[in-house]
Amino acid sequence: MPVEDETMKNTKRILTGFVATLWMFMGTDVMGQGSLTPPGAPGETMKTLAQVEPRTPISSLPYTISEPGSYYVTGNLSSTTNGIVIESSGVTVDLMGFSLRGDGTSSYPDYDYGIHVISSTNAVIENLVVKGGRISGFYGGLYCQSMNNSRIEGLVVSDNTEHGVSLNDSNSGHCNGNTIADCTISGNGDKGVYLNGREAQCNGNTIADCTISDNGNDGVYLFSSKAQCNGNTIADCTISGNGYYGVRLYGGSSSQCNGNTITDCTISENGDKGVYLYGYGGQCNGNTIADCTISENGGYGVDLLGQFGQCNGNTIRENTVSRNSSRGISIYRSDGNRVEANTIWGTTGEGDTYGIRTALTTSNFILKNTCVGNGTNYELDSDDTFGPIVTSSGALSGTDPWANFSR
Q1: More confidently predicted of 198 and 13
Q2: Are 317 and 289 in contact (CB under 8 A)?
Q3: What's the rounded Cα separation, in Å, for the pair 189 and 107?
Q4: Cα separation of 62 and 41, whole Å?
Q5: HSE-CB for 278 with a 13 A CA cutoff
Q6: Considering only CA atoms, which of 133, 139, 248, 268 is closest in space to residue 195?
Q7: Strand pairing of 266-268 and 343-345?
Q8: Which of 5, 215, 332, 341 has the fewest CB atoms found within 10 Å of its own CB?
């Protein structure tokens, strides 16, 4: 059996080579292990937080940041002017759960802000993070000029004279791609959150998981007078008890407030309209209001108005709109909008009340809605397209799939 004999020979050669190699690497250590006593105490191997991410303390106000880096507040701080001024990109400010407190005396022209992000002309500031504390008692809580791709998170912004958080495209720079998340913004004298596309762009920003309540004017205001306030998102927020509108979108003077989304929000008990889309000389087109609860507001639940401008091609879908004043959903001088699968009930107020009302409009689509217990459930313009209105009780058979229901 020559094949087996040759195989055994090869196996022996391999084993012999392996043993020789092992002895070569072990060397004299096989014969003697040397001292077993360690040469000394083990040294530190872990880096401190300061070594991993060097951080600069802020222990008094006012404080100006002009270089990139990580900064933190060492305790509750107060100021008679601005709190923290940020003039550089690439900055993180951690309030560490502490408070920045103004003296409440700011007035024109010497406004002061808890956090003031300020860019130079024709420049923007990017990649900021401001987080984790309280800001109160200033003219404005956070005033961010020409700030892009930055994040404001985990703050309580309350009891400031004017806006809680303002993103502004001033100095001819944009204010795009920012996120305001997990914040409580309440009790401020004017607007809770103000996105201002006055000169350039205030586009693609996100307001998420925030409580925005009891502010003197609007809860959230998306504004454009000469430029753009497009593609912003308001999601999973509670917006309640504000003095005027819950959410307002405004497109004026040939500007755009288009393609914004309001979704999964609770918008209730605001002094006037729950959600107000207003194209006044400009555009307020292609926006979406979906999966929201809009209730007990002092004015209409949802109002689309295209006066001297456009408020066209918007979608109002799968919302619960209840116990608002005068009208659940109102569309006036606005065309090509889609109102689908909403539940509107219990509209209140003196005089005529409506579930869904359209007037001086054309080509709107009103489909698969349910209106219950409103003074007039549906009053629709003849130029609109709508599913048949079913008023019968009992079992339904052969119902049109686009039918609206009225009881």
Answers
A1: 198
A2: yes
A3: 13
A4: 47
A5: 17
A6: 248
A7: unpaired
A8: 5
The confidence score (pLDDT) of residue 396 equals 87
Q: Please, are residues 364 and 352 in contact by the beta-carbon 8 Å criterion?
A: no
Distances (CA, A) of 369 to 96, 301, 308, 407: 48, 15, 29, 11
Question: Whole-angstrom Cα distance, residue 95 to residue 87?
Answer: 18
Q: Quick one: CA torsion of 167, 173, 178, 180, rounded to 10 degrees? A: -10
Provide CB contacts within 8 A for 277, sequence distance 6+. 249, 257, 284, 287, 302, 303, 304, 305, 311, 314, 334
Concatenate the DSSP letters of all residues of 160-182 into one string: -SS-SEEEE--TT----S-EEES
Lowest mean per-residue pLDDT among 121-125, 288-292, 336-340? 121-125
301-311 pLDDT, tens digit per residue, is: 999 999 889 99
Dihedral sign from CA coordinates of 152, 153, 157, 163: positive
For the cut 80, the answer to whether the pLDDT of residue 42 exceeds it is no
Give the DSSP letter string of 309-376.
SB--S-EEES-EEES-BSEEEEEES--S-EEES-EEE--B-SS--EEEEEES--S-EEES-EEES-SE
Residue, of 108 and 367, whose pLDDT is higher: 367
Q: Which residue has the tokens 């701080």?
A: 77
For the chain, the average pLDDT equals 89
* pLDDT higher than threshold 50 for residue 15: no
Amino acid at 388: P
Distance CA 163, CA 264 (A): 24
pTM of this prediction? Answer: 0.87
Interval 352-387: pLDDT, tens:
999 999 999 999 999 999 999 999 999 999 999 999
- Alpha helix positions (H), 92-144: none
Place 119 in a pLDDT band, splitting at 50, 70 and 90: confident
Judge whether 190 and 166 are in contact, CB under 8 Å.
no
Dihedral (CA of 39, 42, 47, 48) sign: negative
Q: Is there a contact between 132 and 94 (Cβ–Cβ < 8 Å)?
A: yes
Which secondary-structure segment (H or E) carries 211? strand 211-213
